Amino acid sequence: MSSPVQNWRQTKNIASLIGKIGTILSWTKVFVAPAGFENDVPYFAGIVQFTKNTRTTMQFVDFEKEPVVGQKVITVVRRIGRPKPQEVIQYGIKVKPV
Amino acid sequence: MNIHVAGVGITKFGELWEKSVFDLALEASKKAIEDSNIDAKKIDAVFVANMLSSKLDGQDQLGSVVATLLGLTVPSVRIEGACASGGLAIHQGVQAILSGLYETVLVVGAEKMTDASLCEITTALMGAGSQEERMAGLTFPALYALMARSHMEQFGTTREQMAQVAVKNHFHASLNDNAHFPFAVSLEKVLGSPDVCYPFTLFDASPISDGAAAVILTKKSIKKGILITGSAVATDTIGLAQRASLTGLSATKIASQKALQQSGVSLSDIDVLEVHDCFTIAEIMAMEDLGFCAKGEGGQFVASGQTKLGNSMPVNTSGGLKACGHPVAATGVKQIVEIVHQLRGDMGARQVKGAKVGLTHNVGGTGATVVVHILER
Domain for residue B269, yes or no? Predict the structure, then answer.
């Protein structure tokens, strides 16, 4: 999906983004995925509001039931998609239910 | 501004196995040149709208490729703004003439999408989103689904109201031989089609299409010519989450107000419009953001039937992106071609009687680029 250097640039601030609590603003369930995410379908993703002016688009994980608008979630580190065998594994921030 | 549309040309939209992006661009361009009665040698510059040929065909410098196919050696550039590429290229063509450097230009939008697999095309189109959206595994149907859910939660917009957009646009496409889907569908068919991502079913989404459209713009006065009297572009954040609102496109408001101001016409003067209905919710939001109804009332507005051919405010007589098809960079040019025919009065079965003023609304991504044009006869 990305080169080691792109991967490093995109993920070097990950530690500061863990454990933040936000609220689901909108969500959907993806059935047709882009490259790298084919093995995850179907999956939930959406927009989470963290502070008044901070909203982020992210994938939702560990949801046993359908998400609900207004539900509280917390940020966690997870692998992003699945790399090809010769590619580096990319990690990023997702949210799970609180 | 008074830019004359001297000629228009369009190809069939659909899954066109036998045609490449180059064949399509050439076919639409030749038709526009022929329609204009202007000698190709009088073309001073070419603007080629295209989003995906770099990724899917490995071909850059499309400007040179298209000019060469036409036997020209004039300046020729490719314009890219995702699904708004076509509208942007028209805007660039207008600008080029207004600059005084060129008298006559060709604008052609062409896209070849059906050679790629569903996964390849989904990935390629996400180039029009943000890095954050790509890392979240989002797709364009999913991004518009997020807007649709917010619209439903905030304003009570229903699945049935969204489905009415598809039913209406399919009816219009049934009168358009060039449409990807030239047939009508029932409300039950739309609501019962397979889930794409909630709240959308398959029939809420525009298709992956091949096709091209072209226009000749000139500052020379043309007998019975159609004029572009407003051409405006506005931009917004590339990512949806970074916007103030998930239920409307502020770039639509800015671009339409600018274009109306340039042309001096008001909303009530507009007889026919082509709006960017990549998903059914997009047409509902467009009606609100353009100002044809209040924010939140778009669902009721489209369900009332006013936007159907024969009624007060016909929208997307071509069939829209939904049913005419959506070869992404061709769409913005196709909208101009449709309105030009409407204003000339030669539209046949789908003619809006007495149409004098038309508007086109072309969106890139989830609203990061919006182009609005006003045309008059």
Answer: yes
- Torsional class of B367: left (φ above 0), alpha (ψ -120 to 50), beta (otherwise): left
CB of A3 less than 8 A from some CB of B:
no
A43 Cβ under 8 Å from any chain B Cβ: yes
pLDDT tens sequence across B43-86: 999 999 999 999 999 999 999 999 999 999 999 999 999 999 99
**CATH code (residue B32):** 3.40.47.10
Give per-residue pLDDT as tens, B200-230: 999 999 999 999 999 999 998 887 789 999 9
Indicate the pTM of the whole model.
Answer: 0.96
* CB contact at 8 A, B358 and B343: yes
Distance CA B215, CA B33 (A): 8
The answer to whether B61 touches B78, Cβ cutoff 8 Å, is yes
Q: Does B242 touch chain A (CB under 8 A)?
A: yes
Cα B111 to Cα B328: distance, rounded to the nearest angstrom: 6
Q: By residue range, what is the domain housing residue B293?
A: 3-116+207-376
pLDDT tens digits along A29-53: 999 899 999 999 999 999 999 999 9
Q: What domain count does chain B have?
A: 1
pLDDT band at B280 (very low <50, low <70, confident <90, very high): very high
Question: Which domains are delineated in chain A?
Answer: 4-97 (2.40.50)
Active site residue B326: yes
Residues pairing with A95 in the sheet = A60, A75
Least Cα separation, residue A91 to chain B (angstroms): 9
Chain B contact present for A25, CB below 8 A: yes
Q: In this complex, do A28 and B147 lie within 8 Å of one another by their Cβ atoms?
A: no
Catalytic-labelled residue, pool B170, B180, B326, B373: B326
